[in-house]
Amino acid sequence: MGYGAYFNEAVETMEPAKLRAMQETKLRTQLKYNAKHSSFYREKFAAAGLDPLDVTTIEDLARLPFTTKDELRDSQLAQPPLGTHAAASMERVIRVHSSSGTTGRPSYVGITAHDRRVWTEVVSRVYWCEGVRPNSIVAMGFGIGFFVGGLPLHDAVENIGATFLPIGTGASDRLLSSCRDLNADILTCTPSYAAYLAEYAQTKMRLDPKSVGIRRILCGAEPGGGVPGVRRKLEELWGCEVTEGVGNADIIPVYGAECPQRSGNHVLCGDVVILEIIDPRTGKVIEPAEGVTGELVATHIERECVPLVRFRSRDHIQVWTAPCPCGRTSWRLRIIGRTDDMLILRGVNVWPSAIKDVISSMRPRTTGEVRILLRAPGPRVDPPLRVQVEHGPGVDDPAHLKRDAEELLRAKLVFTADVEVVAPGALPRYEMKAQLIQKLYEAPAR
């Protein structure tokens, strides 16, 4: 049976001018709603001396203050459980999700029935864009708990009409055997887990990952699925196509994805979220243009429970605006890394994902696994940067590999590294988000 190219053709191929008019109409409605129902935003608008009724265009957004993650945490401490920024009572909240809490107290995100419908629609567009169809059998390799990448993904897969296998993390042998038994053709998970799972199949089950029958791996939750070296490694291991989706727990679980062209993630949420790009140092707006980079900022225009205005995602992105052959009219993006993970060595910006890409390109002399060791808080780091690199099986000259890795990092990323070569399997593997940086210092308490 043939299926169309789009889940929602009207939105995904909408002319930019028509989309902009829709966004501005919804923006005016949303800001009035926020001012009425969220004490956080009433106070924020008043402190800035702004009347939300004065914000009528997308350009006017720049007059509004940013919302930060720290503000949201403080808001929830001040008024548990969902904070002063929540704009719907708990009686209307049908589900609550949580962040990992890796930087302190977890932050909670509530959704109403309306919010769930919006999420399901957008994530359905994302998965359709990546190739999920009603005849697909999708194996879940993300956790199905509080994590925002769990139940919302399930909702979207079933909304498309595909078959959903609710396996999750923590049972790799069962995931692999279930994929074979039930003829799963799609696996959705982090790129780290896709690599771990292939290694698990080979070493624990004496199984070639290619024999499992997965035709597509849909990666998300961390950079990697769109990183050339990482993508090549996964495709070689599994013998399948790898695509990437991008999301954010505070914005929408997944709001963008790669089409078959795989030239950046299409923004598929334009009718419910306005995305801006800013210079992370100055806060000035940067217009989307081919190749520009900056921090992603989001404003909800179709949200009831926890609507955010100019939320600083801390995701540093690169943008493409040239027309895509797939026909989708949105601009595209790739998350390079977190602005708070970026390292600066003698004026050179270095992203952990870029280091992993370089080391992955050295396979099979390396396994592609890396760990960056920091003695003191970044972003400024005194060179050389300490990087642990796993050598590949059969490598008997680690000193030669160390020298080559250091030279390649210097040539590709223009910084000096002190590479420590370690044995295969020495570095930790992750079922959820990979931790590429190990902090050798004690973080200050908040």
Instruction: State the total count of DSSP E strands.
Output: 20
Strand order of the largest sheet: 4-3-5-6-7-8-9-14-13-12-10-11
Task: State the CATH superfamily name of the largest domain.
Answer: ANL, N-terminal domain
Strand content: 15-25%
Structural class: alpha/beta
| Helicity, as a percent range | 25-40%
Tell me, briefly, the overall form. Answer: globular
Radius of gyration: 22 Å
Residue-averaged pLDDT: 91
Question: In terms of topology, how is this protein built?
Answer:
Layout: H1 9-12, H2 16-37, H3 39-47, H4 69-78, E1 93-98, E2 108-112, H5 113-129, E3 137-140, H6 151-160, E4 163-165, H7 172-181, E5 186-189, H8 191-204, E6 216-219, H9 228-238, E7 241-248, E8 252-257, E9 265-267, E10 273-278, E11 285-286, E12 293-300, E13 311-320, E14 332-338, E15 343-345, E16 348-350, H10 352-360, E17 366-374, E18 385-391, H11 398-413, E19 417-422, E20 437-439
Parallel strand pairs: 3-4, 3-5, 5-6, 6-7, 17-20, 18-19
Antiparallel strand pairs: 1-2, 7-8, 8-9, 9-14, 10-11, 10-12, 12-13, 13-14, 15-16, 17-18
Helix pairs in contact: 2-3, 5-6, 8-9, 9-10, 10-11
Question: How would you characterize this protein structure?
Answer:
The protein is of the alpha/beta class and 446 residues long. The protein folds into two domains: 1-338, ANL, N-terminal domain (Rossmann fold, 3-Layer(aba) Sandwich), CATH 3.40.50.12780; 343-439, ANL, C-terminal domain (GMP Synthetase, Chain A, domain 3, 2-Layer Sandwich). Helices cover 30% and strands 24% of the residues. It is built from eleven helices and 20 strands. It has helices at residues 9-12, 16-37, 39-47, 69-78, 113-129, 151-160, 172-181, 191-204, 228-238, 352-360, 398-413; strands at residues 93-98, 108-112, 137-140, 163-165, 186-189, 216-219, 241-248, 252-257, 265-267, 273-278, 285-286, 293-300, 311-320, 332-338, 343-345, 348-350, 366-374, 385-391, 417-422, 437-439. The strands form four sheets. It has a twelve-stranded mixed sheet with strand order 4-3-5-6-7-8-9-14-13-12-10-11, with helices on both faces. A four-stranded mixed sheet has the order 19-18-17-20, with helices on one face. It has a two-stranded antiparallel ribbon with strand order 1-2. α11 (398-413) links the parallel β18 (385-391) and β19. α5 packs across α6 (151-160). The longest helix is centred in the first third of the chain and has 22 residues, at 16-37. The N and C termini lie far apart (56 Å). The mean pLDDT is 91.
